[in-house]
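Severity: low
Component: inverse-folding endpoint
Summary: output formatting inconsistent between runs
Steps to reproduce: submit the following structure tokens with default settings.
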């Protein structure tokens, strides 16, 4: 994630500046990939071919995804045992809320995304942020946007990791009648784990494949996508942008380990192909993730806020752009499987 950009810089960001930034990211990804290969033994042609295919598919839109999934990180230093880490300073993560389409609102931090979809009969929240950022970004963010948190009917959690559900219990306790949705396996994980960041939410609704939640004229369809976690959820939904429909594919879990088993990678890739097919059938032309490193949501939100009348929505990358996202993650995951397992 990139931090340190001031609000005065973000207000002036436009699409050309964003393209320059993503071009620079892709150049860095290409350099790192080449450097990684040159520094060690020559990779097998199969790994090299998957990396090359992923670089081509990334284009300017998905450079961050390619960099994160195709390039193994350097070994992290071992952290000595000690007291739990304190929450990071607010200035390193805080982002202002943004209306990015007629009824779609960004409520995330600089690195992690949360969203509100507004319908005639209520609001659907996607992701609950960290426990330390939920009040600032979601509760106060909705106030700034003129949204009433009491209108939230559903809170859908893509998976049970603290960067996306640390605020789940707080929101469950704060919003009368709200329903929380997780995949079955992640509800089980929460119940089995001794502690959970932000506290354990009470078990509520299980989101099954194909389930639809609606708030009048706005709805979200669940696509189960086991891989990142066993119960990871992705979504398909339609919003309005300047009065016109925009169909969105939301990927709920993208990151992969570089030391996984063949079974892990095969399941992850199969889930990605399943979601890709669902997005294509749905006619999705926009793609959203829950990390800005994958979809540039934080920066795209600023572009959406600053665009002139008639300019396209920066999240709308076209059907080809959506398909290329899945191509990148599938190629990178296949390369990772070969590195980790030799096949």
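Observed output (run 2 of 3):
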């Amino acid at each position: 994630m990139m931090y340190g950009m001031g609000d005065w810089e973000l207000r002036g960001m436009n699409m050309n500046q964003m393209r320059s930034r993503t071009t620079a990211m892709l150049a860095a990804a290409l350099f790192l990939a080449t450097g990684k290969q040159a520094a060690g033994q020559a990779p097998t042609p199969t790994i090299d071919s998957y990396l090359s295919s992923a670089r081509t598919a990334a284009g300017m839109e998905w450079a961050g995804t390619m960099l994160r999934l195709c390039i193994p990180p350097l070994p992290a230093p071992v952290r000595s045992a000690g007291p739990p880490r304190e929450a990071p300073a607010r200035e390193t993560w805080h982002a202002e809320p943004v209306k990015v389409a007629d009824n779609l609102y960004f409520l995330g931090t600089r690195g992690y995304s949360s969203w509100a979809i507004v319908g005639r009969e209520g609001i659907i929240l996607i992701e609950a942020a960290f426990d330390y950022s939920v009040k600032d970004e979601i509760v106060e963010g909705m106030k700034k946007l003129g949204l009433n948190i009491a209108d939230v009917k559903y809170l859908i959690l893509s998976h049970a990791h603290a960067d996306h559900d640390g605020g789940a219990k707080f929101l469950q306790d704060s919003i009368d009648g709200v329903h929380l949705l997780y995949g079955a396996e992640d509800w089980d994980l929460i119940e089995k784990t001794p502690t959970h960041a932000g506290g354990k939410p009470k078990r509520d609704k299980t989101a099954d494949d194909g389930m639809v939640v609606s708030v009048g004229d706005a709805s979200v369809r669940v696509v189960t996508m086991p891989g990142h976690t066993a119960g990871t959820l992705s979504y398909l939904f339609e919003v309005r942008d300047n009065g016109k429909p925009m169909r969105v594919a939301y990927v709920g879990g993208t990151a992969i380990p570089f030391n996984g088993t063949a079974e892990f990678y095969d399941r992850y890739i199969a889930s990605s192909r399943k979601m890709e097919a669902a997005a294509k059938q749905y006619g999705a032309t926009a793609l959203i993730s829950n990390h800005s490193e994958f979809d540039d949501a934080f920066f795209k939100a600023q572009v959406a806020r600053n665009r002139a009348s008639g300019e396209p929505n920066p999240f709308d990358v076209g059907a080809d752009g959506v398909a290329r996202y899945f191509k990148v993650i599938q190629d990178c995951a296949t390369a990772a499987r070969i590195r980790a397992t030799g096949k």
